UniProtKB/TrEMBL annotation:
Pfam families: Phenol_Hydrox. It is an enzyme of class 1 (oxidoreductase). The keyword Magnesium does not apply. It comes from Amycolatopsis acididurans. The keyword Oxidoreductase applies. Keywords: Monooxygenase, Oxidoreductase. This is propane 2-monooxygenase.
């Protein structure tokens, strides 16, 4: 007796996920297989000679990267951020931030001189560093091997743009309140010439030429951002509060939420890579060690701006970074 023929299911809007019985979430539907440069069945990324510069770039720095997985599309952002969710979340966050700015609109004029100097040396020049973060994150998203990674990097990129905008807004407000301080005029010179900023400048400029996609992701998301965010957001906020600047402390706390969300998906991606292939651990640790030395050097150089001992600043920043790494490697060790 012949076996009954299995009835073929009709195509649905989510058939790209395969023969699945579960309705994909909104996040998955709008994120899955959206990268034009990872289309299946293509001999090369661009529809041109496989040996063209663009095709060789992707071949060298993504397809031949030591950071590989059997299926990058299996990664999921733990926060499941899609466009609608991101806009709604950030609209609420921006309302809180705008409320702080409005509440303290007239407070800058009464700030003590020490805090004005801190803001002019550590806060307002930071927009150059954060813009570098933004550029590096854009590259990670562009060259990433899955639209799930591109999507997460894209929203992190938007977070950096928001942070640059906040710094620029505060710079102008401080310039109006303290026209004699040089705020609003000296930031580029400080970024390019001040000894305290040069290791951070060196680190982000080198990150911008870390072309391998795995190293680009590791240098920025797993090392430089968690390290320098601890210095320039958390520790800066603490010092500002001690100096009587509640506004800077509150703004730092709100901006830090963006960093925490970036850390969550970055750690999840690191864990996923190790679950996919144990061989990813070696390049991941190599890159972390390489970039951690530069990150610590940058944190140490910035310490005098905060008026704190360098050892204390570096220890706090290193602890924040290593906590992120522990969540990656400990989970992988437990799984094995």
């Amino acid at each position: 007796m012949s076996e009954p023929t299995k009835r073929k299911r009709k195509l649905r809007t989510f058939s790209a996920f395969g023969d699945v019985r579960r309705m994909p979430s909104e996040y998955e539907i709008v994120t899955h297989a959206q990268n034009w440069n990872t289309r299946a069945g293509k001999a090369s990324v661009f529809e041109q000679n496989p040996s063209s510069a663009g095709n060789l770039w992707f071949l060298t720095y993504r397809e031949h990267s030591p950071f590989q997985a059997d299926d990058w599309d299996g990664f999921r952002d733990p926060d499941k951020i899609a466009y609608r969710a991101y806009v709604n979340h950030q609209a609420t966050a921006q309302t809180k931030l705008d409320g702080v700015l409005e509440m303290y609109a007239d407070a800058d004029a009464a700030l003590p001189q020490a805090q004005v100097e801190l803001l002019g040396s550590a806060f307002t020049p930071s927009r150059y560093l954060v813009h570098g973060f933004q550029q590096a994150e854009a590259y990670v998203g562009y060259i990433a091997p899955s639209s799930y990674i591109t999507s997460a990097a894209g929203y992190a990129n938007a977070d950096f743009l928001r942070r640059v905008s906040v710094v620029a807004y505060r710079t102008r407000a401080l310039q109006l309140a303290h026209p004699e301080s040089g705020i609003g005029e000296n930031e580029r010179r400080i970024w390019e010439q001040c000894a305290a900023w040069q290791p951070a400048r060196k680190a982000i400029e080198r990150a911008l030429i870390a072309y391998d996609w795995g190293e680009a992701f590791t240098s920025l998301n797993l090392v430089l951002c968690p390290t320098l965010d601890d210095v320039l957001i958390r520790q800066f906020g603490q010092v500002s509060r001690a100096n009587g600047d509640e506004q800077s402390w509150l703004l730092s706390g709100l901006l830090n939420e963006d960093g925490r969300r970036r850390n969550r998906w970055s750690a999840a991606l690191g864990r996923y890579a190790l679950e996919q292939r144990e061989t990813n651990e070696k390049p991941l640790r190599k890159w972390i060690d390489r970039w951690s030395a530069m990150a610590d050097e940058a944190a140490e150089a910035l310490a005098p701006l905060l008026g704190r001992p360098a050892s204390e600043v570096v220890a706090g920043a290193r602890a924040a970074r290593e906590e992120l790494h522990a969540g990656i490697f400990a989970a992988a060790a437990a799984a094995s």
